[in-house]
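Title: Comparing notes on inverse folding

I've been comparing how different people in this forum approach sequence design from structure. To keep things fair, I'm posting one structure and asking everyone to reply with a full sequence. Here's the target:
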């Protein structure tokens, strides 16, 4: 498995970090986890094309995890790709229909591209045929505990505490050839996530606040610090821990040093804070 960080930031506008998005290449499949703002451009910078993506899994539907969804689907469609397989919590089907349905926000664009004769001629010159269908991503709404198996990999999931009851929020595990990758999504620590991450070769975990940073009592349990994340990872036998979802105020050199020192105090494996476009191999 090869992991490429396409977005390691938050909802904040930030030149250093796009919002959440992570590319996992397994066998003949190219899996994208989340598709926040800026992820599409980093996908191109990584050397991939929109049409390369075979599967898209959403942990939840906060905008910083799905803002570039429509752009990805539209661009892959324009390249003539097969319909993208999309998996996510409800209401991802409604969101998709709201983009690409007959009355969706992109319907005027799609009618122009498929019915305007000069546009049809451009499409034919690129090797396309008429009539040109609209984008039709294959959407499956999923619940906690969902699993999905392909020839080279097995995906499993669990619920994680984050924005319930307004959003259903998931974490994912992918196992392939004896290796295990786990992505927490945006998650407070919980028993189900601990079980999912047990003995993971690589755990990619969000980190919304630093150790010692004050948090509202309602947010504290939902936003574990580097020390808390590392302690939990150590207890679960995780081999490598990577933190992501860093906010602007957390990105100073002293803040990174403190976070890494706090991890080191309790975690024995490899660890780090990811940056956009970094690559990791399992």
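Reply #1:
Here's my take.
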């Amino acid at each position: 498995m090869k992991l490429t960080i396409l977005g390691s930031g938050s909802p904040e506008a930030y030149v250093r970090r796009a919002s959440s998005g992570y590319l996992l290449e397994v066998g003949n499949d190219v899996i994208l986890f989340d598709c926040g703002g800026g992820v599409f451009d980093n996908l191109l910078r990584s050397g991939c094309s929109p049409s390369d993506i075979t599967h898209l899994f959403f942990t939840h539907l906060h905008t910083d995890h799905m803002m570039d969804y429509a752009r990805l689907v539209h661009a892959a469609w324009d390249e003539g790709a097969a319909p993208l397989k999309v998996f996510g919590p409800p209401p991802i089907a409604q969101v998709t229909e709201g983009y690409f349905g007959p009355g969706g926000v992109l319907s005027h664009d799609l009618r122009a591209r498929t019915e305007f004769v000069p546009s049809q001629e451009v499409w034919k010159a690129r090797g396309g045929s008429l009539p040109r269908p609209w984008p039709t991503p294959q959407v499956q709404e999923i619940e906690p505990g969902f699993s999905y198996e392909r020839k080279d990999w097995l995906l499993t999931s669990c619920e994680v505490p984050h924005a319930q009851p307004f959003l259903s929020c998931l974490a994912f595990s992918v196992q392939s050839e004896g290796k295990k990758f786990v992505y927490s999504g945006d998650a407070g620590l919980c028993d189900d996530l601990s079980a999912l991450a047990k003995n993971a070769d690589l755990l990619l975990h969000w980190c919304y606040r630093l150790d010692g940073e004050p948090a509202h009592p309602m947010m504290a349990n939902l936003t574990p610090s580097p020390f808390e994340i590392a302690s939990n990872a150590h207890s679960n036998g995780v081999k490598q821990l990577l933190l992501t979802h860093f906010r602007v105020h957390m990105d100073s050199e002293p803040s990174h040093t403190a976070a890494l020192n706090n991890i080191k105090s309790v975690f024995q494996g490899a660890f780090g804070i990811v940056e956009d476009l970094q690559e990791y191999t399992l």
